[in-house]
């Protein structure tokens, strides 16, 4: 550059300066998912102005500008809820997982209860059939000896069987 005349040096410096400002043309914005995007091209048109953090000709930070929350309050808009933190999302996931496990346990217990009820109803129906056919029925006494049921015992069993069948569907 020593050999170039002074006006030519100034023109060359001006050209380099103009090219370098174009190379610094960077855009920084927050997309709809909340992720910062960096590009040499402008953001899509659907990105609101408040989400554009840096653009050529736009100052990166204006100390005199009101905070975004104050701007929303001034405009009468409700404050936007901040996205949940990782710990909040993790707590929410753990809560949903515990609720699902509790629901599965409750469902399993309900299934067992219904199976036991079904088995009891089937036993009651079998007892009722045996009583209706007049079959000889036996029971065990306190010593573990088999004893044939008398009429009073059969009547008591018939009464209990009718009550059990009343609860069956």
Account of the protein in words:
This protein has 169 residues and is mostly helical. The protein has helices at residues 6-23, 68-74, 86-132, 151-166, and strands at residues 27-30, 36-39, 52-54, 138-140, 146-148. Strand 1 (27-30) and strand 2 form a beta hairpin. Helix 3 runs antiparallel to helix 4. The model has no long low-confidence stretch (mean pLDDT 83). Residues 89-99, 107-116, 130-145 have a biased composition (Basic and acidic residues). It comes from Rugamonas apoptosis.
* Structural class designation: mainly alpha
Share in β-strands: 5-15%
Average pLDDT across residues?
83
What is the number of strand segments? Answer: 5
Poorly predicted residue ranges:
none
What is the N-to-C succession of helices and strands? HEEEHHEEH
Span of the ends, CA to CA: 104 Å
How many strands, what sense, and barrel or not for the largest sheet? 3 strands, antiparallel
Shape: rod-shaped
Helix content bin: 40-55%
Q: Order of strands in the sheet with the most strands?
A: 2-1-3
Number of helices: 4
Radius of gyration, Cα only, in angstroms? 42 Å
Descriptive tags:
single chain, 169 residues, mainly alpha, three-stranded antiparallel β-sheet, two-stranded antiparallel sheet, 4 helices, 5 strands, 52% helix, 10% strand, rod-shaped
């Amino acid at each position: 550059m020593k050999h170039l005349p002074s006006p030519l040096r100034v023109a060359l410096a001006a050209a380099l300066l103009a090219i370098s400002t174009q190379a610094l043309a960077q855009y920084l914005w927050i997309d709809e998912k909340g992720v910062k995007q960096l590009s040499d091209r402008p953001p899509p048109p659907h990105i609101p102005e408040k989400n554009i953090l840096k653009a050529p000709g736009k100052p990166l930070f204006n100390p005199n500008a009101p905070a975004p929350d104050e701007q929303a309050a001034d405009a009468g808009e409700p404050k936007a809820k901040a996205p949940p933190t990782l710990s909040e999302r993790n707590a929410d996931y753990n809560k949903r997982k515990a609720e699902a496990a509790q629901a599965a346990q409750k469902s399993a217990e309900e299934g067992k209860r219904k199976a036991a009820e079904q088995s009891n109803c089937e036993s009651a129906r079998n007892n009722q059939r045996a009583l209706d056919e007049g079959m000889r029925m036996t029971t065990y006494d306190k010593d573990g000896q088999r004893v044939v049921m008398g009429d009073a015992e059969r009547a008591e069993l018939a009464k209990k069987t009718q009550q059990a069948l009343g609860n069956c569907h």
